[in-house]
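Hey Z.,

So I finally got round to the flavin-adenine dinucleotide thing we talked about over coffee. Here's the setup:
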Amino acid sequence: MWRQVQSPFACSTLGRTNSGNPTWHLTSNMREALRTRCCIAGGGPAGMMLGFLLARAGVDVLVLEKHKDFLRDFRGDTIHPSTLELIYELGILDEFLKRPHEELTTISARVGRQAVTLGDFTHLPTHCKFLALMPQWDFLTFVVEQAREHSSFHLMMEAEATDLIEENGAIVGLRAKTKEGEMDVRANLTVGADGRHSIIRQHAKLDVRDMGASMDVMWMRLSRREGDPAQTFGHAEPGKMFVLINRDSYWQAAFVIPKDTAAEVRQRGLASFQREIAEMEPFLRDRVQELRDWNQVSLLTVKVDRLTKWSRAGLICIGDAAHAMSPIGGVGINLAIQDAVAAANILSPKLLVGTPSSEDLQVVQKRRNFPTVATQWLQLAIQNRVIGRVLGGTAPLSLPWQLKLLQWFPYLRRFPARLVGVGFRPEHVVPLLAKRAPSEVRRTA
Ligand SMILES: Cc1cc2nc3c(=O)[nH]c(=O)nc-3n(C[C@H](O)[C@H](O)[C@H](O)COP(=O)(O)OP(=O)(O)OC[C@H]3O[C@@H](n4cnc5c(N)ncnc54)[C@H](O)[C@@H]3O)c2cc1C
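And the result:
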């Protein structure tokens, strides 16, 4: 409940949905003005987790998400042991594990005709010795439900950040477009968590370093039937890679192609595309016809980049807005969440009493820079040395010596599992220090 809402606009009302969640109804074209401690643009893993953690610490926070729900194109389903550990630290792991998910204790793939195990999570020093696969909309819904336990958490769906408000060289809030009209949000801190096409970082004029990506992904659903393999897995053949994620009643399938070649694939025709999938995974031969037109196949363009500076006075970017991650290793969500945890740990004590300084914001980048750079370095190494060669090659694939070692000495599988499952310098949720402040999101004239 947004208790301290002051309503200078006679035409604006605060209501509640059937689910009991606060919602606004604006009945005029006037520009709404809100005030909060922290306004987050983007309700993906980074933004929602930061919103939850700040609200948990008692900081008044407003998350704006441009879509009306979380049901949209694929954005990654992997909840790694490091994230599960954070969920454990927050005391909500049991609740989380009640939600439908798949647990992977190993990562496996097929290279040509050979099945290989690439990593083994069962020895990790974490409570969950597995990777959980959960559709991202379920994960985000879970985080929002937890966040809503705190009265200082506010979420507006269908609210798209469009610009920043700058005064005396500092960012003091943002402008947003909602279904009801335009809105200004004034905040002690504005956060760009709006993903790899971030408009926040663009309007903040933060420098982006593009590291290049050699692939794109074509993404589709195919039904799952009795007798199909049980586990999620990947398969590489000369010139193509295919990943299948088990979503119980269907397979979420990713067809990996060399960068910017989607138009060529489409030009070859749907029948040829169906044939290529069936050649990769013959058990799908009886259902590739479910793909009746290209609208059922989404193109996800892959980007790897990062900001030189993640912040400026009054504003910080986190998650993909600060560093777009490749899907390699499926670590992007987890890195985004780790950023959120670091930002909450460092900034919530400052936000509880006022405005974080530029130096406070830089501490977040200093904390997260090494894990980001190291992870992107690994992703680029795999992209250029392995995936690039597979996608560019025509000769039959043979196992590289590194993968042969993993098959001969299973003990070694712990190392890739550690890199993927825990990563570099994992964050931890700090215990609550301060008494919660009451909600203070309010409307201003
Ligand atoms: C093809 C592909 C596959 C991937 N697979 C995986 C995987 O399996 N596992 C994994 O961990 N990572 C994966 N990644 C990476 C992962 O998707 C990202 O690293 C992760 O989603 C980053 O989280 P985020 O919250 O920073 O950004 P996002 O998840 O992009 O969330 C940003 C949110 O902001 C919203 N938004 C955007 N603009 C605005 C605006 N102006 N105003 C308000 N809201 C806005 C968006 O709607 C979105 O909800 C994949 C990436 C690609 C390209």
